[in-house]
Amino acid sequence: MTVQTQNNVAPMAQADLDDFTFTSESVSEGHPDKICDQISDAIVDAFLKEDPQSRVAIETAVTTDYVGIFGETRGPDSITPAVMEELAREAIKEIGYDQKGFSWKTAKFDIRAHSQSADIAQGVDAEGAGDQGIMFGYACRETESLMPAAIQYSHDILRALADARKNGDLKGKLEPDAKSQVSLEYRDGLPVRASSVVLSTQHAESLSQDDVRELVRPYIEKTLPEGWFPTEDEFYVNPTGRFVIGGPVGDAGLTGRKIIVDTYGGSAPHGGGAFSGKDPTKVDRSAAYAARYVAKNIVAAGYADRCTIQLSYAIGVAKPISVYVNGHDTAKVPEPVLVDAVQKVMDLSPVGIREHLQLNKPIYARTAAYGHFGRAPEADGGFSWEKTDLVDALQKEIG
To answer: Is the pTM of this model over 0.90?
Structure first.
């Protein structure tokens, strides 16, 4: 079944503008919510490594000196609560938390995982979707990764600072918790400069606001394209003046609360379902990856400069209920042609997606910080949804 709207304009989208300012934000691996995402996905990976058919739906919560792990699983008995705790401590250590109030060594754990619901299991085992829902994918020509520029640069800033914190000049100066926000000025529909950059980063107590500002400046300058750095009065670093208390000591965290950070930074719709902590039978995750994959390949093939895909599913049903394509007035062929071609070159059933993208692998912990999209495909199957290997098939089908 396919759905098209009148004049191929998405009902949820406003008319596209040519000149505007658009903002996206990212959060670092040390943000409390991201700690939770990484722990949950480390557990998913552990199950899939032991048994690729494992079923996992794990939520994590953190606050001062506390980590709670809850959810349902179906898989090898070897992944015990003690193993889950060990995985969580290792994730916290890798992020860099060994602080008073939250440390990988001393955090207290409460782990309550139970068996997967038999009602859900029977639908998934019949090769259907693990839940109902709608998923979106998006791609555009703003960056080499075919991602919206504001979210891409927001991620890249934090990733550069994290690398320097762990291995470089910022070790011992910056702490793990951070947020970035990039506002881009668009002219004729294309980004031309950063109108403002906001960075809030946890830091050593001995550093002043000005110290932090000058420490981070070169990393941001290198991340943004040449000439894009904002004016000094639009470059905000720790606007409150001080950010020493951070992480789970400063705020609680929970899996799945950063879904816009995880996807397109607000440049495209989101279906609402989070990714982390879920095995790939959950279409919240796998179908969102497939939608990005299809959208990226449509853009890479030259059939649109911007593309939004929507897929919808019903629990236990082994096919998508609808497939929607919107080229945002940039499509080189009619959208119904793209809808038909997409379904011919890829099986968009839940099992078809898992097989095509080879998702039943321990590849998810690495996705849990700095975005699930816009990343380079990896040799072991990580970020397989970022490949552009559907281009030839689409071109052959469409002509």
So the answer is: yes
